[in-house]
């Protein structure tokens, strides 16, 4: 049974710098997900550290923060049936080197960090990530009850 969900995604600085943000956003819509909020922004170091706090003890944390602050990102809230899994399937595996052609990471990424996109992995994560970047007045009202 299909469940209408909201999920969160980021077009990362590598994809934005390469001029691929529009192509990625078009793929979201072409795959039946509705963009209900979007903003172009340049993360501060504090914002990036806060968003990726779950990884603060990992050895790659500093490099991740540096990468995510090197240029603009596009933060996106999407809505649709089974949106979380559909967005993750559209992105492909985290490591772009292992992502098949036709996925966002396979077509626009260049490794495990510079993988063009981020996506929530569960309803709870999506709710937290959406709230980190957007307030309620910035998000289009639901198309149906969630």
What this model shows, in words?
The chain has one domain: Nucleoside diphosphate kinase-like domain (Alpha-Beta Plaits), CATH 3.30.70. Helix content is 38%, strand content 19%. It has helices at residues 13-17, 21-30, 45-51, 61-68, 83-91, 104-108, 123-133; strands at residues 4-11, 34-41, 73-81, 117-119. The mean pLDDT is 94.
**Approximate shape:** globular
Rg calculated over all Cα atoms: 14 Å
Give me the number of helical elements: 7
Largest sheet: 4 strands, antiparallel
Q: Which parts are unreliable, with pLDDT below 50 for 5 consecutive residues or more? A: none
Task: Tell me the name of the CATH homologous superfamily.
Answer: Nucleoside diphosphate kinase-like domain
Oligomerization state of this entry?
A: single chain
CATH class category name: Alpha Beta
Q: Looking across the biggest beta sheet, what order are the strands in? A: 2-3-1-4
State the total count of DSSP E strands. 4
Helix content: 25-40%
Number of domains: 1
CATH architecture: 2-Layer Sandwich
Mean pLDDT: 94
Give the topology.
Elements: E1 4-11, H1 13-17, H2 21-30, E2 34-41, H3 45-51, H4 61-68, E3 73-81, H5 83-91, H6 104-108, E4 117-119, H7 123-133
Antiparallel strand pairs: 1-3, 1-4, 2-3
